[in-house]
Amino acid sequence: MMKKTVCLFGLLWAGLALAADQPNIVFILSDDQGWRDYGFMGHETIQTPALDKLADSSLVFDRGYVASPLCRPSLASLATGRYPFEHGVVGNDVDGKNNRAELDQPVKDRFHTFPSFVKLLSENGYLTHQSGKWWEGSFQDGGFTHGMTHGDPARKGRHGDVGLRIGRDNMTPVTEFIDRAVEEEKPFLLWYAPFLPHTPHNPPKRLLDKYSEEGRSADIAKYYAMCEWFDETCGTLLDALDERGLRENTLILYICDNGWAPYSSNLDDPNQKTWKGFALRSKGSPFEMGIRSPIMVSWPGHAEVGRSPDLAHAIDFFPTIAAAAGVEAPAGLPGINLLDEDAVRSRQTVFGVCNTVMQMSVTDPDDTLQYLWCIEGDWKLILRYPGRDTSPYRKLHAWDKAPLRLYNVKNDPHEKNDLAAAHPKTVARLKTKIEVWRSN
């Protein structure tokens, strides 16, 4: 009996010691924000003091990329560490409005067959909380122990429902969850994905007044104000961690789901307003304003502080979180641990996709595939996906029917000069890389 008691005590002590060593994890995701639209990224007007302060204590990857330039597939790739054509979530909705929820269920079912860092942490003793954007049913469906989203289509559950109130209304659900985790002495994961700066662009008047000025379009002023509003909510969250003395043992990760730009800032032609509310070459496109986002990793004593010139990707979040928490990630994840300097420096290329905005097919993720892209160093190749022009789901962007485009994104960050004809060997090399990547 004494031996059994000692053994039980030893196991309990080991479990408590492991929990004490495991960091809390705070995942911050903004929604529809251009990669330059932060103070720490050099924007001349938008002020983001809270995120600037976080950047000062983070490893910042200026050249971060998402797997897809659209929110739902982007979030699905962040959670699973897989590309959209693997987990099957390639758009926001299955075609069809009257029975959208029924048509969408097979997509959700496929997604939930894949491991996620949420499920992994919940299974390993973490309290996990969802707030903000979440497309794949309720927070319970996603493997969270706590959360806000009910996901019930009968109650207008689609992409976050009640969870979308976080930040716009208050931060109480988040701070109450943190207090609960502290009280229970458990490590926690916080999924903070507010519906910001996403439309509706209805910022507080004080912020709108700040950015409204003669000569600046109203849509641009509203967007700028929304970016600062989002930053204010991040400040509230980060202050809550500081006030509770949690920052030293908390891993904070930041990324945006996809890029965005107001339509009146259109990079091609200000008179073209093809997409409601946002500019061409931004959200939904394979250009930098669609797929690029700064990525921040902050963990005192573990993550170096400074700017990295290396490439980072949304698929890296799962292996990074698993390594930090000391739990085993699923085999075969294509991403890397962003805290592994050798892995980061040895990476040469990142990849991604671009499917038709909004619609997707249940039967074949490639039914809506438009473009594949890769980046190697300063070179970027955008490859039009061949052979699908007859698909009822696939609609090419009016502004880009070229079979491929090559850019030097260091010298030409706005991708104005297509260099494909001048560099055929580079095109051939990158095209082969894309083909090999898709075949694996």
Automatic annotation (TrEMBL):
<dbReference type="InterPro" id="IPR050738">
    <property type="entry name" value="Sulfatase"/>
</dbReference>
<dbReference type="InterPro" id="IPR017850">
    <property type="entry name" value="Alkaline_phosphatase_core_sf"/>
</dbReference>
<protein>
    <submittedName>
        <fullName>Arylsulfatase</fullName>
    </submittedName>
</protein>
<dbReference type="GO" id="GO:0004065">
    <property type="term" value="F:arylsulfatase activity"/>
</dbReference>
<feature type="signal peptide">
    <location>
        <begin position="1"/>
        <end position="19"/>
    </location>
</feature>
<keyword id="KW-0732">Signal</keyword>
<keyword id="KW-0378">Hydrolase</keyword>
<comment type="similarity">
    <text>Belongs to the sulfatase family.</text>
</comment>
<dbReference type="Pfam" id="PF00884">
    <property type="entry name" value="Sulfatase"/>
</dbReference>
<dbReference type="GO" id="GO:0046872">
    <property type="term" value="F:metal ion binding"/>
</dbReference>
<keyword id="KW-0479">Metal-binding</keyword>
<feature type="domain" description="Sulfatase N-terminal">
    <location>
        <begin position="23"/>
        <end position="327"/>
    </location>
</feature>
<keyword id="KW-0106">Calcium</keyword>
<dbReference type="InterPro" id="IPR000917">
    <property type="entry name" value="Sulfatase_N"/>
</dbReference>
